[in-house]
Amino acid sequence: MHRPLVITEDHALLDDLVRIAAAAGAQLDVAHMPTHARPFWNLAPLIAVGADQADAVAATSPPARDQVLLVTRDPEDPDTWRKCVAVGAQAVVTLPNDERHLVERLADAMEPDPRSGSVICVIGGRGGAGASVLSACLALCASGDHLRTLLVDADPLGGGIDALLGHEEAAGARWGDLVAREGRISSSALQAALPSFGDLAVLSFHRGEVAPIPSQAMRSVLEAGRRGFDLVVVDLPRHLDPAATEALTRAKTTLVVAPADVRGILSTVQVLGEARKHTADIRAVLRPGVVDDEMAASSLGIPSAGALPDQPRLTATLNRGELPKLGPRTVLGSLCTSLLRDLLPA
């Protein structure tokens, strides 16, 4: 993979850029004059032109391209924007004020094959409604169709979605390893760190005492997830904390699993009252009950996305560390396939 290119003779500026690149997990190619840069100009994922070399670069009339930045350490230089236009740069980066922005630009440039994955949140309208089971089954169904999928456990008190999958002993990072991170997380680094099973990666909690997820950590994980995966499924707690709120604001669609009985409907209405403050597209997945599906959806005031059937032997299956079968001819497999078809881009 080609590396970002820096063109400068300013040694102090170069020292800053090498340090910033290291923070982004990147190494640089360095050209001290424009003639040395010519072989790399069309290949580098990003080019940082020092203000000291801008006019010299412009004099060589390099081909127009995107991802060119003019980097300066002098915010008062009145000639900065003329140099920016002359060199064909899309933006000016002023150090040290724009260091974090430059770290993100360099890290983005190093991402292999960036994707634009969809975030789907799942939340239970009542305790035990089956939101975690639906989250896990959606993720398994998507990964089984060769969609690169990230399953995120956002419920610190849920017992661990990795245990639901029967993989609680799998090696890899958990939330406790990520919550201290600030700023951007590389999608490739996230994929490499998490427990993975084919096309499915899982982010859950360590056993024992757990701390709430900071909203910044959730934001960084979901941004990395959208860049590196086709689908991100987030299993939310019913009591929305800042991390759950962060996930809802980034969700393409939120599925609320609602038992179709009186208490289930009343409880789900309460959950919807909070969820609607943070996301727009909310759909119901109804569990069988004494209230028919049409009346249940009408009472909730949101469209029905489907019905999650009762599984008579589900509890015993889960306690064995297994999930119900998801073949295309099973009711649950058919539901997940239908949901993914309706919610994801073609």
From TrEMBL:
<dbReference type="Pfam" id="PF26563">
    <property type="entry name" value="Rv3660c_N"/>
</dbReference>
<dbReference type="InterPro" id="IPR022521">
    <property type="entry name" value="Rv3660c"/>
</dbReference>
<dbReference type="InterPro" id="IPR017746">
    <property type="entry name" value="Cellulose_synthase_operon_BcsQ"/>
</dbReference>
<feature type="domain" description="Rv3660c-like CheY-like N-terminal">
    <location>
        <begin position="7"/>
        <end position="115"/>
    </location>
</feature>
<dbReference type="InterPro" id="IPR059050">
    <property type="entry name" value="Rv3660c_N"/>
</dbReference>
<dbReference type="InterPro" id="IPR050625">
    <property type="entry name" value="ParA/MinD_ATPase"/>
</dbReference>
<dbReference type="InterPro" id="IPR027417">
    <property type="entry name" value="P-loop_NTPase"/>
</dbReference>
<protein>
    <submittedName>
        <fullName>Septum site-determining protein Ssd</fullName>
    </submittedName>
</protein>
<dbReference type="Pfam" id="PF06564">
    <property type="entry name" value="CBP_BcsQ"/>
</dbReference>
